[in-house]
Every structure is written in structure tokens, then in C-alpha cells.
Amino acid sequence: MRRAAGVALACLGLLLASPPLTPSAATVDRPFATSSPFNTAVPAGTRTDPASAAMVARATRTRQLHANLVAYGIPVLTATPSTPRHRVTCSMAAAWGPCPLTRQALPIPLDARPSTGDDGALVVVDPATGTIGEYWQARRSGSGWTASYGAVNDLAGSGWGGSSTGAGASRLAGVVRVREIRAGLIPHALVLQSDNVCAGTVRPPALKTDGTSRRTDCLPEGARLQLDPALDLAEVPGLTPGERTVARALQVYGGYVIDRAGTPLSASFERAPDATASSPGAVYRAAGFGWDYDGMDAVPWHRLRVLRTWQG
After folding, report:
1. Residue 192: C-alpha distances to residues 76, 223, 237 (Å)
2. Residue burial 188-214, b: 16+ Cβ < 10 Å; e: rest
3. pLDDT band at residue 174, thresholds of 50, 70 and 90?
4. Which residue positions does the secretion signal occupy (predicted)?
5. What Cα–Cα distance (Å) separates residue 283 from each residue in 66, 131, 183, 303, 309?
6. Cys staple from 33: which of 18, 163, 209, 294, with CB 3.0 to 4.6 Å?
């Protein structure tokens, strides 16, 4: 996430609020309510945004959708009853408002390592309380932790709320998980980032934006993109197993623009436990991801489209 530059839409948060679910309905492996925009397939008969062609042409100008696997991969950890708990302070609280991380002691495992990119992202799920601690620019401070900012989200909620991403999406929402690539199935929408995110324009379900682009072909945060569902992936030459899995998820569930980034278009992946600076990890490599920021070149990304609304 880059510095947020929008006003939260409080009324939208109420619209997206989900009724409480039983603990078995939302889990670490399958987070958020079944009615969440992340867990809802793109409906049939969707309408395309009138500016879709221009927006997609700009976003896919390099013919790639980069997989953020390592430096900007998201470390997703699960707390246990014995995990140490901390009152995490926010260094940006003076500018952005009261720190949501100090309201309760939050679990952070001893072996936690934030992402090494500028975002310093870290996600810790606490199944006992049904909460998700989400940290932006997390770092150790003596025996405790601090962050530039973050959020605490509901594991059984909508997947939207707080300031751990530019659009107000949960930092866990839409992240491609290691186990999903191993299984060859991503049962949810993805989250996308772009270097051409609109300034001052917010599209539901996004709550805010950190976009700065004034171009006419900019992508609004909250925009839902879908890979053409009529595309027969079996006929696309050279697809790796990982590319096919990602492409199929984008056909069924699409992906939401949730952050400003340094690349034309990218997607968030969980950082594998065995990832290194030179390898994304064994599971990703077996699926055909050769390196961090793999562009998934074999997928015809020009076949993406921007939907008029997230419901289609």
C-alpha cells in the first residue's frame, strides 16, 4: 500500500457488513463471509465499463500480469494460544488518526518476517478471536512491534475495512495462497495493483483510494476486472499450471484493484515459507513461476475487461 489519499465511505462499510457466521463458515484457508465480494463469482450477463478497452490496453501494455511472490508477497501466519501478544503502535497515527492496532493486544509469532518490499506487509490470523491483524510497514522494535499503519479485520466479515491497503480491502483478502496453487484451484477473487490508479475516484466495494493518476484510461480502485470467460484456456498454448490456475480464477471470480504499485498490473500472492531472494519456493516453481514478479506471459491479458460494477 502507498499512502492513502481518499476519504473512507462509511455508508459503504455498512452495506458490506455481513451477518456473523459460525466459526466453520470462515476459516484461515477460506476467509470471509460467503456473501463477500471476494467469495462471489462474477454473475452471468455482466456489463462492461465503456472505458474498459482503454483501461485494459494501458494496464496490459507490457503483456504481463506480475505475480508478487517474494519481495511483495504477503506473509500469512496463524496465531495459537501461546503466540506472544503485543500492543502495536502506528508511526502514522498523527497524520492518519488513532491507531487501530493499539485497541487490543495482537498476536505476532516469534518467527514473523514482514515482506521485504516497501510495504513491509504482515498478516496474522487469530482463529480464537476470529480476527486478522494486518500490518503495513511492520517492523520489530525491541521486544515488541511497530507499523506505519494497519487494520484489524473480521475473519467472517466482508473482506473490506481499515487502512492496510490503498482501497480499504483486507490485506488477506484476495491473496493467492500457496495451497491454492498446489491444488490448482483458487476459489475467490484476486487483488490487483497498478501504476495507473485513478486519483480521487473510488468505485464500490472500495472504501478509499491511494491513486494519483489523472489519465483518462486510469483504473479506479475497487474496479473489478475479469478475464474473458469465453476464452478456452485449453486452447491457449504454453500455459503453465500456475498460469492456468490464476487465469481460471480471473474468469470465474475476477480481481479487484486495491493498491497503487510500480508495475502496470500485478497480483498478490502469499509468500511461501521456503521463499528466498532467488526463488519463490518449491510449490510456485513446480507450478511454473520461475522468479519473483513472474509476468505470467502466456496468458492473453488483453482479453481482460473492466466491469461496470462489482456485481456485474
Report:
1. 18, 10, 24
2. bbbbbbbbbbbbebbbbbbbbbbbbbe
3. very high
4. 1-25
5. 17, 28, 10, 27, 34
6. 18
